[in-house]
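Hey, can you fold this one?
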Amino acid sequence: MERKIKLTIEYDGSQYHGWQFQKNALSVQEVLSKAIKKITGEEIIPEGAGRTDRGVHALGQVANFTTKTRIPAEKFVPALNTYLPDDVVIVSSEEVDNSFSARFSAKAKHYRYIILNRPQRSAIWSKKSWHVRDRLNFEAMKEAAGYFVGHHCFKAFCASGHSVRSFDRTIYYSGWWKDKDFLIFDTIGDGFLYNMVRIMVGTMVDIGKGRFDAKIIKEALEQGERNDLGVTAPPDGLYLVKVFYEPFTDDYNPLTVNFPNMNLT
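Sure. Predicted structure:
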């Protein structure tokens, strides 16, 4: 009898070409598939909640797979972690209904972006954050973040190479906060386009540098012109924090996800 298993996965994406299988490059999906085969003997390609790009990290990526093995659902955590590399870890495992889909059952996602804003680069955070030397206008960046909240057409915040038909998305939360030399951006939405969060962050950093006024966000959402916006932030600072499978509510406070200890000063 087949069962469906849901996994919550944490990974450091620095050494991977994203979640999705690649022909000539290592992916998180590939190493997870190999680990599943080790313990079940089955050729399985797990379905992920989303395709994180090369270098992007995850605290709460979700995947599911169907198996005939009788291994208790909760035992997949220690079993898979035995065969996974140190930079990929199964946080939890459970049996779910066959109708569950890590991708299509998702109601919302929480992403976080971390910027190290100081003159000196960091040896420890070089692949975990975006090092920005310039002094940034933090209040202008906070103002800009507020314009993203709501239901909008995000065509201006989508990179080329996409395959979507609709650019409409709803952002439930968008905001910046500080931790010493770190600037942290949290956003929660019902879906995100290709490179959308990275373009949002890159544009807000250019606003922080004084290149644009914060209101350019509102204009871009109304006009849908990508060419008028700033750079695309590098993948190193981006984290998939959580995938929601129930409708998002204001009871969830993204600021309570205070990871990791970022006090370097």
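The domain at 3-96 is CATH 3.30.70.580 (Alpha-Beta Plaits). Let me know if you want another pass with a different chain boundary.
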